[in-house]
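Good morning,

Both structures are done.
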Amino acid sequence: MDLAKDGVHILARLDDRSVMVGVGYGVVEDTRVVGFDVITRGILWTYETRSAVRSPAVRLADRFYFLDDEGTLYCLSGQGRAFWTRRLAGDPGPTLA
């Protein structure tokens, strides 16, 4: 199984047992970012996004920043709480990382 081809992208490592994953375009109708426990294989939290998230997240202290395909920049905690979102003007260009 090619996860990227199936619309699943690992965005960041949250801690020793969990990762932040982007899910969308072809897998589910609603795109989202989820916290996923790799030990229990359970979803810890879900955050809906405007479009697919395929680029890696950037971690600064306790916050994760990532960009969706439509150019919306998100800032989330490792527990999936949104600090803010901002729609960027124009073409967002290459990924943040």
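Second structure follows.
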Amino acid sequence: MASSTTVPNLSYLTQAQATSAIVLAGLAAGTITSSASATTPSGYVSSQTPSAGAVVAAGSSVDFVVSTGTGLVPVPNVTWLTLADAQTALLLAGLNS
């Protein structure tokens, strides 16, 4: 029978810290992706699969997502601008008009 281990909580760890925690638990780092998060600061783990506390076979992979930050940008005030000027302001802010 294969031995089992508990998946560590990776929330708010950096990618390097999360990878170390996974290896120390006798698991393997699986797919690491990045995504915007409204609640997790940039550079920290925002979610994982399987979830923390799950009991899995030793050597199993743990996937996790590293936050790129909120992904929000300030929206420029385009009130009273011409259509062309408003579109330019929005494009310069990285938004689609």
